[in-house]
Amino acid sequence: MNSAVGSGAIIETDGLTREFRVRDGRRKRLLTAVDGLTVRVEPGEAVGYIGANGAGKSTTIKMLTGILVPTAGRVLTCGLRPVPDRRRLARQVGVVFGQRSQLWWDLPVRESLRILAAIHMLSRAEENDRTAELVEQLELGEFLSVPVRQLSLGQRMRAEIAAALLHSPRLVILDEPTIGLDVLSKQRLREFLIGERRRHGTTLLLTTHDMGDVERLCDRILVIDHGRLAYDGDLPGLSRTVGAQRVLVVDLAEPVPDLTGLDGATHLSSQAGGLRQRLAFDAEKTTAAKVLAAVSGQAEVLDLTVEEPDIEDVVRRIYAASR
Amino acid sequence: MAETAGRLERLRPYRAVLASRARSQRAYRANFAVDLVSSLLVGVVELAEVWVLFTNVTALGGMRFNQILLVFGLADLAFSLADLSFGHLDNLPDFLRAGTLDVFYLRPQPVLAQLITSDISLRRLARAAVGAAAMGAGLTTSGVTWSPHAAVLLVLGLVSGYATFAGMFVLAAGLQFFLLDGAEMTNAFVYGGRYAATQPASVWTRPLKLVFGFFFPMAFTAYLPAVAILGLPGPQWLPAWLGWCAPAAALWSWATGLLCWRWGLRHYQGGGG
Predict the structure, then answer these.
(1) Number of CB pairs < 8 Å for A and B?
(2) What's the pTM?
(3) In chain B, whose CA is at the least distance from the CA of A102?
(4) Does the interface predicted TM-score (ipTM) exceed 0.90?
(5) How far is A74 from chain B, CA to nearest CA, in Å?
(6) Domains, chain A, ranges and CATH?
(7) Lowest mean pLDDT: which of A11-25, A243-257, B23-37?
């Protein structure tokens, strides 16, 4: 379509940088929120964009959508320059801000969707088809005629997502979409996003503090720390990079003393006088099966589970390492 | 035909929002009635102020009560209609504080056009009615000699006055990007300007004439067209023929308004001044 770009990437940044002048008491100080970010996201990818508060996630999103002008560097979103081509870009991008509503507070959900259809100039047929699809997939039917201000948080988030996706954007950016939701609402939302991606090939970029979101939804992770890209790769790779350990939990037939001194595994804790023990091991150096074999040599194992690395911990380690 | 249809289609986003806002305001009839009445009262009280003044004097700034009524009516009608369609630009600081302005960036229309059409305050119709009534009374009792000239001046004055006030709202909104809690300051020239517009400019001091005569061209919204309609000479610095220049004042108001808005938006996006 846009031959000038030709690269086909849906997000392409090169040395993207944004500085802010902030007041620090009396003096003004330059704060670099995003620092030389170079990233390329292909159509159809699902990318988790994670980092601590203030790491530069929101600033990046604002530059991708044309709200903020970069201080330096280049950015193309859907092959367009976000600031000068903002209005064209708006037709191809949908953004969900977890804490900023784009619905009309006093209007029923249905009416908000109708207005948004007009705003995006959808034809009657497009509007009806897409609304029906979203209402079904997000289960909006039960509260379509309820004013937004009366919705529960979970319902409101579903309505927000419908609002952001109504114009079938190629790229969907979600800023903390599951914040404050209960387990069931989170689960439903994730399933919807997985389905939407499968059905339409939509590219997802999401920032989150909820590592469940990343594990379920994303096949690629970008970690940003102090405005810089600290990691770009998949989840297992991230765990390997920081040497996060997996944990084998074994339930034993009878209480045994703490299983210290096993080859390749460290004893973490014991419960019920040693009936259940937690053993950490490094997935790079050994396997769960080997550790299990070692345990079996000392006691009878009734049951076992393997705990995946805690991503919060992984991210914390990345920060520590890059500092 | 096709061209008109295309243009209408382009307006569809704005129409959808406005129609919905209007509907929701009228949905609660009792509420809407109370809003209308309170807005009417504000208009009446302001008119009464002029009337009280004239129980003590017979002329002010070379104008009699019924002539002042024309000035007041023109100004109030134009301002009320501008307030009805642009007044909610005053809410920009709330959007800035809550970060909700960003939502407007995600929609394929210009941010200012979206903001202007994001609401409409139908209750201000009541106040516009007070202004229209005062204007009508002024026109019929002050012995205006009707001519095509006078009619053109009246329409020109009203349309330009509306546009001038609207431009002031845009200017004030543009300044909000720089001023935290700046509504207080911009209210001074928006609402102070409205007040000044309802007065005969001949009573203003020289600095006021400079500020509200030219920089914020309030004298052009009502007083000067009225002076020209009535065939009065006009005071020093503000001759009656300036009444014909009301559209120039409207253009000036929009030029400064849009410049300021652009400047504010750039500041918000951080692209430099």
Answers:
(1) 70
(2) 0.84
(3) B103
(4) no
(5) 14
(6) 11-239 (3.40.50.300), 243-322 (3.30.70)
(7) A243-257
